[in-house]
Amino acid sequence: QEQLVESGGGLVEAGGSLRLSCAASGTIFAFNARWYRQAPGKQRELVAGFTTGSSVVYANSVKGRFSLSRDRAKTTLYLQMNSLKVEDTGVYYCYSPPKTWGQGTQVTVSS
């Protein structure tokens, strides 16, 4: 059974850092694996994702602060988050197209 499990979320003060991990079991990540987030009362939005040729796209709001990476085996996806802001608060989900989502990990940034 394909499964993605996120970890690394938590409570951090503004300006701090967190590193999210997403481990795949029963599968490997698609070439275009992504991280999404959903803030309270808002729609889920793309944070960062691999595209063709291992290029990475980032949401404008996180450019220069977040970094997406993965291991060579393509079984673990990472999101390094630096200079965190209160507006980065939300539930972060990893996603491996076309249909496999993680259960989410909460990130809370306090002022």
How does this structure look, described?
- The protein is mainly beta and 111 residues long.
- The chain is 0% helix and 51% strand.
- The strands form 2 sheets. Strands 2, 4, 5, 6, 9, 10 and 11 form a 7-stranded mixed sheet that branches. The chain has a 4-stranded antiparallel sheet with strand order 1-3-8-7, with no helix packed on it.
- Strand 5 and strand 6 form a beta hairpin.
- It is globular and about 40 Å long.
- The termini are far apart.
- The model has no long low-confidence stretch (mean pLDDT 96).
End-to-end separation in angstroms reads 40 Å
Major sheet size, sense and barrel closure: 7 strands, mixed
Average pLDDT level: 96
Report Rg. Answer: 13 Å
Beta content: over 45%
Q: Summarize the amount of helix as a percent range.
A: under 10%
The helix-strand sequence is: EEEEEEEEEEE
Structural class: mainly beta
Identify low-pLDDT runs.
Answer: none
Based on Cα principal axes, name the global outline. globular
Number of strands: 11
Oligomer: single chain
**DSSP helix count?**
0
